[in-house]
Amino acid sequence: MTDLTDLTRLSAAALADALARREVSSVEVTSACLDRVAAVDGDVHAFLHVASESALETARGVDARRVRGEALPTLAGVPIAVKDVMTTRGMPTTCGSKILQGWVPPYDSTVVAKIKAAGMPILGKTNMDEFAMGSSTEHSAYGPTRNPWDLGRIPGGSGGGSAAAVAAYEAPLATGTDTGGSIRQPASVTGTVGTKPTYGGVSRYGLVALASSLDQAGPVARTVLDTALLHEVMAGYDPMDSTSINAPVPGVVEAARRGDVSRLRIGVVKELGGEGYQAGVRTRFEEAVQLLVDAGATVVEVSCPSFVYALAAYYLILPSEASSNLAKFDAMRYGLRVTPDGDPSAEQVMAATRDAGFGPEVKRRIILGTYALSSGYYDAYYGSAQKVRRLIADDFARAFTTADVLVSPTAPTTAFAFGDKIDDPLAMYLNDVATIPANLAGLPGMSLPSGLADEDGLPTGIQVLAPAMADDRLYSVGAALERALEARWGGPLLHRAPELTTSRKEA
Prior knowledge:
Number of domains: 1
Helix content: 25-40%
Mean pLDDT: 95
Low-confidence stretches: none
């Protein structure tokens, strides 16, 4: 019998079991989550939009179908939060930007359509850095999300809202997107679990594009198994996405339930550690690797020399693709329109709209990308970055000849205080130094908690990387490590997070 005293604290797997046994209704679970949002989100600010009525309507429908004896998907009735970069019919999709304020899409993204088909009530849309540009959620036009571990610190970015919603027990599950680490880095600093699937493993249709060759949607949760359950819902071939992989979804749930690393070769990446990494982060990482050895894995050191160029290549490729993708926001078709005085031309309206609607980080990257793609500079910048991308893919290929998975710290530091890096973009970009290589190569990666840093008592994360379409390896390693760590801690790491004071969420 499941302990149902606090539904918001249960894992998605436990909720699914309780729902299937009719020990609790989806209306009760969804209401508990909505009450939690109302109680704590005034301080956390994980949500940009709360969809109470539609979530409860979905929950009532699932309950009715269950009473009728219908066979339902595993996660039917389990609530979820959706990152505000995924189009959602009937709900605003702002991408954290003023330029899309109030825009309600007429269609669902494929991921949202799959969530609805699975019978999962959508609690609302989560906050994010504007158009997913940032590592701290400080670049949201609607104000920052705060880390539930310390409200004076960042929850990571760009998907800080999704990670914070899960860490604050506002939602058992959330969706995220990862262009250079925007699922994994927030997971690391909030003590949660997040996976970037293989590029093409989850449809990008209806995902407002930042950098089309890098963007990948994925699951956010509190446990490895929960992440796998959501991964299975989200993944699969989609003919609406030209980059979608037409192949079976890897057996991620089975791998998460098995959690076996015996005889697995774990590659520690030489270039993703050492100088620049916080001492407490390194200590927890080394302890986690030793636990994998104790569980039967073999550890080898691998070198990926091209990784040192990954950050530079990424910050040429991403702005270049962003400048192209964001050109659609022209004040003519949808979204914000600012009309200067007099009789302005279309070009003047467009310029005024973009000036008012885009924030400083978006403008910075558009300018950089436009320059990199301009005549006479394409080969020197964007073209050269693509060559580096090839070298990074080759480094991965060589590393996977001697290792089954690769591991590193997810982020070089724990969560930093608000404002610490807002005026130093390069320092902020360095937070993604360990996660970016996987995006450049299109490979799957997971972050899970590795403990609390000695210096500040804040969460640290360990990253697991696997070859393309070997996403199941992430879950085998993640589940085995999670089990060993929780045995050492005496329970999940999030149980050590301070209790949030409850206050009424502002309308």
